[in-house]
Amino acid sequence: MATHNELGEKGEQLAVEFLQKEGYTILERNWRFKKAEVDIIVQKEEVLAAVEVKTRTSNYFGNPQDFINQKKIQLLVEAMNEYVISRDLDVEVRFDIVAIIQNKNTTQIEHLEDAFLHF
Predict the structure, then answer these.
(1) pLDDT per residue over 23-81, tens digit each?
(2) Residue 46 resides in a domain
(3) Most buried one in 46, 55, 89, 118, CB count within 10 A?
């Protein structure tokens, strides 16, 4: 497996553990709809959140969250719309980012709630 895939999988696992500690229930991992993949779908009380996980070894080229573009956002919105409708859910939907910088010495995790409001 390519090193970046391993880093991504490790980042997703770190994000799951982090979110669980914060009181979120993990509903899905790597949920797919058409061309979209939602890394993690979580729920806390009446809020359903699609969580995009971005993991990097440094922020030399920018923060992890800077690597999400409008096309990705559009795909995530469509996917979550399908998720909510197909399950007949009555919840508030939010889009979060868990940005992780992990190198040999440290791991930094930042949870950005309602992250797409900032794009």
Answers:
(1) 999 999 999 999 999 999 999 998 999 999 998 877 767 676 777 888 989 999 999 99
(2) yes
(3) 55
114: phi then psi, degrees, rounded to nearest 5? 50, 45
Q: What phi and psi, each to the nearest 5 degrees, are found at residue 104?
A: -60, -35
pLDDT > 60? residue 119: no
pLDDT, the chain, mean: 88
3-state secondary structure of 9: helix
The range of the structural domain enclosing residue 77 comes to: 3-60+72-118
Q: How many structural domains comprise the chain?
A: 1
CATH number at residue 53: 3.40.1350.10
In a domain? residue 36: yes
Full DSSP string of 27-95:
EEEEEEETTEEEEEEEEETTEEEEEEEEEES-STT--GGGG--HHHHHHHHHHHHHHHHHTT---EEEE
Identify whether 42 is part of a domain.
Answer: yes
Query: Which pLDDT value is given to residue 118?
Result: 56
What are the backbone angles phi and psi of residue 17, rounded to the nearest 5°?
Answer: -60, -45
Does the residue 67 lie in any domain?
no
